[in-house]
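Weekly sync, protein design subgroup
Attendees: M.S., D.O., the rotation student, P.L. (late)

Item 1: inverse folding check
M.S. brought a backbone from last month's batch and wanted to see whether the design step gives back something sensible before we order anything. D.O. pointed out we never logged the input encoding, so this time it goes straight into the notes. Structure tokens as presented (452 positions):
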């Protein structure tokens, strides 16, 4: 036993003090931590006698048991961003207040809370029963009903907090989505709008082709619904956190967001609820905001439409060529970043170093590349209507812009695209995988002259 306790003494710091030695132990994901725990132990543990192994297993369960409660970590990047702008640090008390307010409103990853927000019909977007099913450690009740769906299916990529920095994230390109900014790419609503319920359902059932985001089509409908609720929950909580951090930065140095005693506390609580209500309302509104789409003219001459789309693609108004490149291989403008990466100020060496110093959950910046349109792999779906939405509304959080769409009564000569122009661009984009790559526009003109 003396030997055993010496072993345990030696092992404890290995697993729980050093992040480098045990990446899973501090992932906040107990199941993964447990599975990967073997990574942390010297192989000689397997040579222990049977009794030793049993005692060891009991000890392990006790230690791991301590970590089964998942906690929300603070949005350290956004706090540092504000601190850099202020040129002053948030006090520990201010950070504790942020955590306390958020815990009061939203609970913990294992016991999510749906805050009461007066007139705002939060139940339309957050369903307490669904949240219960999606949250917590992976388990099932006595009738075999699953719980902990988010941690089972999503957290290893998207992180327990929804920060997009789960243990698998650093191996993926693109990185998994950080929901906390409240920005989503593939949706039917205009720029800046939240995704609708249908949009999230499409993402979960189809996955995102060309990325690591898998399809969850095999899950029963009620589980998909639970996961949709949980993504919304993490996103709403994350966005409210950002707003509160922003408000904290506005306070006079050392002043607190929520005074702990005295008059004014209930007014303050009401104004904090208003912040949350504003975020939740945007999610409620989204379900009515999908961009209406008139179908293309079924009798159009397809070859002429493709040709028109091509002219627009290379022309000055749509100017798709700027980013997607002369050959549409996605090799035009390749030096830009998406909005999540821009938070780390990737072009400012000093700032970047400071952000990366926040911890291993900060993923190193990578440039965002425009899509190679000749592959015919479209993340937001390859149906004409999907491509129409991308070109009409742009892709939020990325450099891909929305179109300036002309109203039917716009005076002649106004610069912009009509709905038919956008359908022509869709036709052209859909034809690109089949167009000969050796025919960029300039060469084509020369080629045509020669033929004449
Ligand atoms: C193997 C890693 C992986 C797993 C597991 C995973 N995702 Fe993703 N997910 C991704 C990646 C990568 C992206 C980003 C794709 C991009 O930016 O184009 C993403 C993006 C998303 C988006 C954003 C879509 C948008 O329009 O911006 C949502 C929502 C999402 N995932 C939900 C989930 C849910 C819910 C689960 C679990 C049921 C899950 N994901 C599991 C990798 C994963
Ligand atoms: C300022 C740069 C920029 C311009 C201009 C631009 N794009 Fe993009 N486009 C991008 C980027 C970056 C992506 C990849 C976004 C992502 O990571 O999902 C993209 C993605 C796409 C996609 C892929 C959608 C999907 O579901 O995978 C299509 C289609 C597309 N662009 C078409 C166009 C068309 C047509 C035009 C002109 C009207 C255009 N783009 C103009 C930068 C640009």
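Designed sequence read out in the meeting:
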């Amino acid at each position: 036993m003396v030997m055993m306790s010496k072993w345990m003494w030696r092992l404890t710091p290995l697993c729980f003090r050093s992040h480098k030695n045990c990446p899973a132990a501090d992932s906040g994901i107990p199941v993964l931590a447990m599975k990967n725990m073997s990574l942390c132990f010297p192989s000689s543990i397997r040579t222990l006698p049977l009794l030793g192994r049993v005692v060891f297993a009991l000890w392990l369960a006790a230690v791991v048991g301590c970590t089964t409660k998942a906690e929300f970590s603070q949005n350290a990047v956004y706090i540092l961003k504000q601190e850099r702008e202020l040129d002053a640090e948030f006090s520990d008390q201010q950070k504790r207040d942020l955590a306390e307010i958020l815990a009061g409103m939203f609970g913990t990853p294992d016991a999510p809370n749906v805050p009461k927000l007066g007139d705002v019909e939060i139940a339309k977007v957050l369903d307490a029963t669904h949240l219960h099913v999606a949250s917590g450690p992976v388990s099932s009740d006595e009738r075999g009903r699953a719980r902990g769906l988010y941690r089972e299916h999503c957290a290893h990529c998207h992180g327990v907090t929804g920060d997009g920095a789960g243990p698998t994230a650093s191996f993926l390109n693109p990185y998994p989505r950080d929901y906390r900014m409240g920005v989503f790419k593939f949706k039917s609503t205009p720029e800046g709008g939240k995704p609708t319920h249908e949009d999230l359902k499409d993402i979960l059932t189809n996955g995102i082709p060309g990325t690591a985001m898998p399809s969850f089509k095999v899950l029963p409908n009620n589980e998909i619904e639970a996961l949709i609720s949980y993504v919304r929950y993490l996103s709403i909580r994350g966005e409210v956190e950002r707003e509160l951090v922003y408000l904290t930065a506005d306070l006079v140095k050392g002043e607190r967001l929520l005074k702990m005693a005295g008059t004014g506390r209930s007014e303050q609580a009401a104004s904090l609820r208003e912040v949350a209500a504003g975020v939740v309302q945007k999610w409620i509104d989204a379900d009515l905001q999908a961009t209406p789409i008139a179908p293309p003219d079924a009798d159009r001459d397809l070859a002429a439409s493709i040709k028109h789309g091509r002219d627009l693609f290379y022309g000055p108004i749509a100017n798709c060529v700027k980013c997607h490149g002369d050959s549409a291989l996605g090799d035009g403008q390749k030096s830009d970043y998406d909005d999540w990466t821009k938070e780390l100020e990737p072009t400012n060496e000093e700032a970047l170093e400071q952000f990366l110093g926040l911890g291993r959950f900060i993923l190193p910046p990578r440039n965002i590349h425009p899509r190679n349109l000749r592959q015919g792999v479209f993340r937001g779906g390859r149906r004409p209507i999907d491509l129409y939405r991308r070109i009409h509304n742009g892709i939020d959080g990325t450099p891909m812009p929305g179109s300036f769409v002309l109203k039917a009564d716009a005076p002649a000569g106004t610069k912009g695209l009509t709905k038919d122009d956008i359908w022509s661009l869709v036709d052209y984009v859909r034809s690109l995988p089949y167009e000969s790559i050796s025919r960029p526009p300039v060469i084509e003109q020369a080629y045509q002259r020669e033929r004449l």
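Discussion: The pocket of heme C (ligand 1) is lined by residues 153-154, 157-158, 168, 172, 174, 176-177, 184-187, 195, 200, 203-204, 208, 211-214, 216, 227, 231, 379 (CB under 6 Å). The CA atoms of residues 18 and 84 lie 29 Å apart.
Action: P.L. to compare against the previous round before Friday.
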